[in-house]
Design brief:
By secondary structure, this protein is mainly beta. 10% of the residues lie in helices and 45% in strands.
């Protein structure tokens, strides 16, 4: 029944469901290539050899058994499945030199310009992000702050920020703490690939974003758990960037930044790379995150044919979050969101923002764009059957009617604490059969 419903959902979008990956039956074990699962031995070369051997076979399954496999970057090839058995942990090395080529830092696991690539199983992929991420003093307790200081590191002049630079036991790759912080990379990244599948595994503690398909087609992300500390800087969960025909289903996300996010680039280049298009996001649960489902902030390439349904957000900062600004905005089209459950939302249950400013750690807040190119246009968005028990503000829309229009919210219930609505884009947002309740004085 669920399969038929899924097919129907994509048909409603005028699109086919994502094509399945094609992985040959051949298999190898990482142990056959000298890997040692003791959490101490570096297994980068063992993974390289195993991938090379499997590539010569025309693809297949690279099996990782129970144990802790410390490693540098793993680069997957065509028709290849990285399979983690229950109890298997792939732990990324805390030594930044293992990922740095002198110019950039490689993701933990990646594939570029490949097809039929899979990560599967019941194991864990851990990015060891604490050795990379900056930490804001305001977001940790005194005891936690002392633990970071024990690692060494560098504290900013005003004492507000700790950098993973100048650590006691690990060298830096560049001298300047801010420059090194900007080199943080993703845990799993697929770029310009076709037929991608990530199922069952747990992704945690990334230096930056956890799972990032970029300019990919035919993507299935099913039953994945993504987690990191609630205060992890830039700790996004699942970010799709300019992807087409994608399914994100049955995932659990509990992270330090946006939970499930769609992006489509900024400026002229994004027009060439195209939109996020033909995407279904369903039956997911998001606990802590800046937003449960998010569009932006960069989406100059556009957002087309997006269905978000039967998702639950518990304790996120915002629920449905649409954010952008001039120079990074685009146009939304055929965004359909329904049957969303929310509890304990810190700020807004639904928010549209058109003056978003990116705030990298240790830098002054970015100034608003001086020009009005690529102004965001949030439109053709229908949101229905939302139930939210607990939020500061039910619905906020901050922007002009030109930037926020054609938004319909219907058949929904919100229990708010501070304000029912803050809508400046009237009549760009239409409410129909929306119940707004709060405590009575």
């Amino acid at each position: 029944m669920l399969l038929f419903a899924l097919i129907a959902a994509f048909q409603t979008l005028g699109a086919q469901a994502p094509a399945k990956v094609n992985i040959p039956a051949a298999s190898v074990s990482i142990l056959d290539y000298g890997a040692v699962p003791d959490g101490i031995t570096l297994n980068t070369e063992a993974f390289r050899k195993a991938v090379s051997a499997l590539e010569k076979k025309g693809g297949g399954h690279l099996n990782v058994p129970e144990g802790i496999f410390l490693t540098g970057p793993i680069v997957l090839k065509d028709c290849m499945d990285l399979h983690l058995e229950r109890g298997a942990v792939i732990l990324m090395s805390p030594d930044k030199r293992d990922f740095y080529d002198g110019k950039s830092v490689k993701p933990g696991i990646s594939a570029s310009k490949r097809h039929d690539v899979s990560i599967s199983g019941e194991g864990i992929i851990d990015g060891n992000g604490a050795w990379w991420r900056p930490v804001k003093r305001s977001k940790v307790s005194d005891a936690e702050w002392k633990e970071f200081l024990k690692m060494g590191g560098t504290v900013s002049g005003d004492g507000s920020l700790w950098y993973a630079s100048g650590l006691k036991h690990l060298p830096d790759i560049v001298a300047d703490p801010k420059a090194q912080e900007k080199l943080r990379t993703h845990l799993v990244r697929f770029t310009d690939c076709e037929r991608i599948s990530v199922t069952g595994v747990t992704l945690q503690n990334s230096p930056k974003f956890h799972l990032v398909p970029q300019r990919c087609k035919d993507i299935t992300i099913d039953g994945v758990t993504v987690r990191c500390p609630w205060n992890a800087q830039n700790g996004d969960g699942i970010d799709l960037m300019q992807c087409q025909r994608a399914l994100i289903a049955h995932c659990t996300v509990d992270v330090g930044d946006d939970g499930i996010c769609l992006k489509a680039g900024a400026g002229e280049k994004a027009l060439k790379d195209g939109p996020c298009k033909d995407i279904v996001i369903e039956y997911n649960t998001v606990f802590h995150a800046h937003g449960g489902f998010v569009i932006g902030s960069e989406f100059s390439g556009g957002m087309e044919n997006i269905t978000v349904r039967h998702n639950t957000f518990c304790g996120t900062d915002t629920g449905l979050r649409f954010k952008s600004a001039p120079e990074r905005g685009g146009r939304t089209s055929n965004i359909r969101i329904h049957d969303i459950q929310m509890t304990d939302i810190k700020d807004q249950a639904i928010v549209f923002q058109t003056d978003y400013a990116d705030r990298p750690a240790g830098y002054e807040n970015n100034q608003a764009a001086k020009t009005q190119n690529f102004v965001p246009e949030f439109t053709d968005v229908e949101i229905t059957r939302v139930i939210c028990r607990g939020c500061a503000v039910a619905i906020k829309a901050d922007g002009s009617e030109e930037s926020i229009h054609g938004i319909k919210i219907s058949d929904s219930v919100f229990f708010w604490y501070s304000s029912p609505t803050q809508i400046s884009a009237t009549p760009g947002v239409t409410l129909e059969n929306v119940r707004l309740e709060s405590f009575q004085d």
